[in-house]
Design goal:
Blueprint (H helix, E strand, L loop, with lengths): L1 H27 L3 E10 L7 E5 L2 E5 L8 E10 L4 E6 L3 E9 L6 E6 L2 E6 L4 E6 L2 E4 L1
Antiparallel strand pairs: 1-4, 2-3, 3-6, 4-5, 5-10, 6-9, 7-8, 7-10
């Protein structure tokens, strides 16, 4: 009797593992596409640098980051067009940079001390002097 019960439970665990293996990859990323990019900006560069993470472009003009450093972008885009863009590290640039969210995006939000701040865009572009986390749709 003990061996029969043991075999039964072993079969149930195998079936459960197979079902989980088939279902989890589908549900883990459902509805979102994630894009990444990173760019090392050399100190005192005289060239314009670009980041592109999916549909979002960032233009960093020469002199914007005099000390140089590694910049990263992670963009999650939902099936309905909503997005979350995380740029790091949170740096203050010496001059303005341009973040191009695309012509269909008219406003984005970023968070400052737990408060959402609305940023209106011109032709889908935001001119700013800092990196942050932006959300839009």
């Amino acid at each position: 009797m003990y061996r029969v019960a043991q075999r039964h439970w072993r079969r149930m665990l195998i079936v459960l593992a197979l079902v989980a293996a088939l279902i989890l990859p589908v549900t883990a990323g459902a509805g979102w596409t994630v894009y990444h990019d990173r760019e090392y900006i050399p100190p005192a560069t005289t060239e314009t640098e670009d980041l592109q993470a999916g549909p979002i472009y960032v233009t960093i003009p020469a002199g914007a980051l005099p000390q140089g450093g590694l910049l990263r972008a992670k963009v999650k885009v939902a099936d309905d067009g909503a997005f979350e863009a995380v740029f790091s590290p949170g740096v203050q640039f010496a001059t303005n940079i341009v973040i191009d969210f695309g012509p269909d995006v008219h406003v984005v939000y970023y968070w400052e001390d737990g408060v959402p701040i609305l940023q209106e865009l011109v032709d889908g572009k935001l001119v700013t002097n800092h990196f942050s986390r932006y959300s839009g749709w």
